[in-house]
Structures are given as structure tokens and as C-alpha cells.
Amino acid sequence: MRTGARLGIMGGTFDPIHFGHLVTAQEALVQFNLDRVLFMPTGMPALKVRKIVTPAEDRYLMTVLATASNPDFDVSRMEVDRPGLTYTVDTLRDLRDIHGPSTELFFITGADAVWDIVAWRDAETIADLATFIGATRPGYDLDAARRAHEGAETRFHIDYVEVPALAISSTDIRGRVRDRRPISYLTPEPVVAYIDKRGLYREAG
Ligand code: ATP
Ligand code: MG
Q1: Whose CA is closest to atom 27 on ligand 1?
Q2: Quick one: which ligand is closest to 171's CA?
Q3: Between the CA of residue 66 and those of 16, 74, 105, 107, 191, what are the distances in Å?
Q4: Residue among 15, 21, 140 whose CB has most ligand 1 atoms within 8 A, to mutate
Q5: How far apart are CA 95 and CA 166, in angstroms?
Q6: Ligand 1 centre and the CA of 3: distance in Å?
Q7: What is the pLDDT of residues 83-104, one digit of tens each?
Q8: Which tens digits make up the pLDDT trace of 103-124?
């Protein structure tokens, strides 16, 4: 990538990826003038250890299927291939090494998740490596979040991006598949087909 590039990183479990993730990445790309967005499916997420998560390879492939038609979107295997629990600080360090100091990193995450990050280990290091973009979900009180953050003792720099109201979640999609209800128009059609072909989410999990 050219020097002075702005790289967005969209981290998530993507179990499965859906239009909420895709529209968030697109809005961040446009509103923050990013060059590309790199989707980063987690390996074994440190924050979700107690939850049963679909094999990383399936989540990675669905992310590829969902983003394949967009030339500004890429998918990384970095976390999927790294053994052990996933820590965002490791990923940001690796990306910094790969792209060098001239590329600015923007970590895109749900505005709700931003507050978990402040509690992550190595939060100070993370703050030095990337700017955070918190995506608001429907019903989220952006002004309250801004006010709360202004008063907080943290060196984190968080910008917010407002995304069109999309009450889609992976949890809801998994529940729909389990209950044999439709998931079309909640996630791209190739992902719908892949879930069906592999028989994902049919059992309670
Ligand atoms: P789950 O229901 O299993 O928690 P999820 O739909 O929240 O899944 P994740 O993979 O956990 O999906 O989300 C990755 C990131 O995308 C998180 O930072 C999350 O807050 C954000 N996100 C998820 N759904 C939406 C949505 N509809 N609009 C905006 N951001 C979203
Ligand atoms: Mg979530």
C-alpha cells in the first residue's frame, strides 16, 4: 500500500457475517476516507471463550464470500491462523510490522464493544497502534457514549460512525436457522447458500 495510507480493520467473530457488518465497513470507509477495509475474523476470541463458536475456517470462508464483489474489501487469515486465543494487540502489532509506520490503522468495532476494549489487556499499547472507530447500532445513545468517554481516564482516541439502522445480529441469524426461519436479505446470498450447504447453526449452540 502507498505511504500515508489509511487502513480500516473490521474485527469480528462473523458467526456469520451479515449486512450490519458490511454496511458498517462501507460507512467507515467513506466517512473516514479509508483506502481499504480489511475484515479480520477472530480465531478463538478471548472475550467469547465460554461460547461455542463455529470453526474459524467456515467463518473465514463466509467472510470471503460476503466481501468478494467489493474491490475495497479484503479478508485476512492472520487471526484464524494464529494459535491460541485471539488478542487484538497482537494483530495490530503484526499489521504495524507489515505495513510500516506510514500506514494509519483504524480499528472498526461496535460502539458497545469499544468499552470492552478499554478494559482489554495492553489497552495503552493498542491506543498507540490504532485509532478506534465505534459504529453505533440502532437504539444506541451516541451522545451519552461521547459524554461518558470525554470524562474517562483513557488515552484512547475513539471516533464514532453512525450506520443506517440495521437491527441485524449474528445471534438472530443463528436462531433463525435453528428455528427454520428465513435468513435471506439479512446476509449476502452466497453466505445463505454456504450455511445451508454446510448445515451450520441447525443445532442449539
Ligand atoms: P453476535 O450476535 O454473535 O454477538 P454480532 O452480530 O454482534 O454477533 P460480531 O461478529 O460480534 O457480530 O460483530 C463484529 C463487530 O460488528 C462488533 O464490533 C459488533 O458490535 C459490530 N456489529 C455487529 N452487528 C452490527 C450491526 N447490525 N450494526 C453495526 N455494527 C454491528
Ligand atoms: Mg456481538
Answers
A1: 20
A2: 1
A3: 10, 10, 23, 20, 6
A4: 21
A5: 30
A6: 31
A7: 888 888 899 999 999 999 999 9
A8: 999 999 887 777 676 666 677 7
